[in-house]
């Protein structure tokens, strides 16, 4: 320990007084008994005073201005700029149980720690900021989106920070707590039945229409207030033609903007500019492989492209749930699913209890991905993995996060021990209580978890 000059002086003085006290004690021992008792007492008092003074000054130096004394501080980091500033830079953690079981370092990026609770916070910020910058969205406008939950919640979380509102169209088979969260956040929620993307009433197509209707209403209001009859003007790129419907929740908005998370490349850019660089920095560039599932494709595309630009030897993979055609597209170049081949597709396009992942078309975001291969995952594997991680690591993860971890283990088994593998922990289990974490719901589909270890994993 480095000491100040004043401390050194005190320590020297203390040593001298201690010697003096010791000498006095020796002299007193040679004196008569009564004198000896008095001398010993004086010596003991001297020693005590000196020791107390030394310890007090050593641990409580008066000179607080010296360079060796650090003031108390919780953190040197400056405060974040609102909720938007708190998004991103999430921790990258070692998933201990999976790492020990496979011999690989399996790392998970904790996106569930974002303010809105998921990886989609990054996308929401990027989409809104680019729309505001381009003029497609203005303050006071409404952002519309068709979403199974997480993107919608993220948009509803951050939209108010930009002075905007949020309207969400969600399939009615999504976990009910997602709708409840959205309504609590102040978003207008429209629940619709799940149909094919080619149907005009698919939730994404309805969300697109709602944005157009918001533009019509805003232009009609402006026309009535400011324009002469026959004079047309554009609002957010939309020309008012006099035909509109009365949607009260859109009536007070200054136009609408359809976020279009599946095709809007702001999604991809959010991960290419944010998630990917963070992973590279947090691993110090020591990463062998990355794996994640795809819904819109933005995460796997942005991260894979960035990592491969930094190091072409980094291998990037997809993990695909039941009912999705991406596995076959990546591995065989043909977009089809097992369910389609066997002619037993269900009314739900994705035939899976996992939410937010799996798709049967190529989005503009997914087309940006650079992948080396793909693995299949099952509902049972995702359910069992979620319980395994809860028991062994204290990680309470949602369905897509669990599926990503299934992929990480399969990838580890494929490439062998000693490698570093990164995946995305998209969201927590808090949004999946009514389905993915419901014993009653799982038993209905014969998915009650039973495994003790990782024996539930199937090959590829």
Automatic annotation (TrEMBL):
Regions crossing the membrane: 37-57
Signal peptide: none
Keywords, ordered alphabetically: Membrane, Pyridoxal phosphate, Transferase, Transmembrane, Transmembrane helix
UniProt entry tagged with the keyword Protein transport: no
GO biological process: cysteine biosynthetic process from serine
Membership in a protein family: Belongs to the cysteine synthase/cystathionine beta-synthase family.
Domain Tryptophan synthase beta chain-like PALP: 85-427
CDD domains: CBS_like
Catalytic function, reaction form: O-acetyl-L-serine + hydrogen sulfide = L-cysteine + acetate
Pfam family, one: PALP
Entry keyword annotation includes Transport: no
MF terms (GO), sorted A to Z: cysteine synthase activity
Cofactor: pyridoxal 5'-phosphate
EC number of this enzyme: 2.5.1.47
Alphabetized InterPro entries for the sequence: Cys_Synth/Cystath_Beta-Synth (IPR050214), P-phosphate_BS (IPR001216), TrpB-like_PALP (IPR001926), TrpB-like_PALP_sf (IPR036052)
Protein name, UniProt field: cysteine synthase
């Amino acid at each position: 320990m480095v000491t100040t000059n004043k401390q050194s002086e005190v320590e020297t003085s203390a040593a001298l007084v201690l010697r003096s006290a010791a000498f006095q004690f020796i002299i007193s021992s040679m004196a008569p008994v009564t004198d000896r008792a008095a001398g010993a007492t004086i010596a003991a008092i001297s020693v005590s005073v000196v020791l107390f003074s030394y310890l007090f000054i050593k641990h409580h130096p008066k000179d607080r201005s010296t360079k060796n004394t650090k003031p108390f501080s919780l953190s040197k980091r400056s405060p974040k700029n609102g909720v938007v500033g708190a998004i991103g830079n999430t921790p990258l953690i070692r998933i201990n149980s999976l790492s020990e079981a496979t011999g690989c370092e399996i790392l998970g990026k904790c996106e569930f720690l974002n303010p809105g609770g998921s990886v989609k916070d990054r996308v929401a910020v990027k989409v809104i900021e680019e729309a505001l910058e381009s003029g497609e969205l203005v303050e006071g406008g409404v952002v519309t989106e068709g979403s199974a939950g997480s993107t919608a919640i993220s948009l509803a979380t951050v939209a108010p920070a930009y002075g905007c509102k949020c309207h969400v169209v969600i399939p009615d088979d999504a976990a009910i707590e997602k709708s409840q969260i959205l309504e609590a956040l102040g978003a207008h929620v429209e629940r619709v039945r799940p149909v094919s993307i080619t149907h005009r009433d698919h939730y994404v197509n309805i969300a697109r229409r709602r944005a157009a209707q918001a533009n019509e209403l805003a232009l009609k209001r402006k026309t009535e207030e400011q324009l002469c009859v026959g004079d047309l003007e554009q609002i957010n790129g939309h020309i008012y033609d006099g035909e509109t419907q009365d949607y009260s929740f859109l009536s007070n908005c200054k136009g609408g903007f359809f976020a279009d998370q599946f095709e809007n490349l702001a999604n991809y850019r959010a991960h290419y500019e944010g998630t990917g660089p963070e992973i590279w920095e947090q691993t110090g560039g020591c990463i062998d492989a990355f794996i994640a599932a795809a819904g819109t494709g933005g995460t796997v595309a942005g991260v894979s492209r960035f990592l491969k630009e930094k190091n072409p030897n980094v291998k990037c993979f997809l993990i695909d749930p039941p009912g999705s055609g991406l596995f076959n597209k990546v591995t065989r170049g043909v977009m089809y699913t097992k369910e389609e081949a066997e002619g037993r597709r269900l009314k739900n396009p994705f035939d899976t209890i996992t939410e937010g992942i799996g798709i049967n078309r190529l989005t503009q975001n997914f087309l940006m991905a650079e992948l080396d291969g793909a693995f299949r995952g099952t509902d049972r594997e995702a359910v069992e993995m979620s319980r395994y991680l809860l028991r062994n690591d204290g990680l309470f993860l949602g369905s897509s996060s669990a599926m990503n971890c299934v992929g990480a283990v399969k990838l580890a088994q494929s490439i062998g021990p000693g490698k570093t593998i990164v995946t995305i922990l998209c969201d927590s289990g808090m949004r999946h209580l009514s389905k993915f974490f419901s014993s009653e719901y799982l038993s209905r589909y014969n998915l009650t978890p039973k495994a003790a270890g990782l024996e539930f994993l199937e090959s590829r």
